[in-house]
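Q: Here's a chain of 152 amino acids. Please give me its 3D structure as tokens.
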Amino acid sequence: MSLFLVQHGKNLSKDVDPEKGLSGEGKNEVQGIAALAGEHRISVSAIRHSGKKRARETAEIFAQFINPGGGVQEIKGLAPLDDVTKLGLKSDENLMLVGHLPFMEKLTSYLVTGSPDRFPVLKFQNGGIVCLDLDEETNSWFINWTVFPGMS
């Protein structure tokens, strides 16, 4: 199983957009990373997001490039301050989760070290992907690769 964790793209300020949707720069960066994901044939059963506008928009851009079989779905449990230990993951499907800080950094720490309080083990960047893989022999997660805007 692979888990693709994405922090939403750069967003507009609350005075410009009360829902803090993606900025033009954020959309462009997410499209670039999503296109790269599509070129490398990243395959996920579904893309799940927190429901916040910036996460939904980011998820929808990724869906255009990687065409998840289960589509794009809003789920509970991905908000910035939600408890990462309560997120149920099935070990038989590749998923992409689109959310926020500090949740994404705490989730990565929890999966890799067993503790959400040992964070960050990796610093997220807006619009980037962190790929975690599950070692089925040891039932432990590890960071397999990352890609962030501006790496080219």
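Q: Can you summarize the key feature?
A: The chain has one domain: 2-147.
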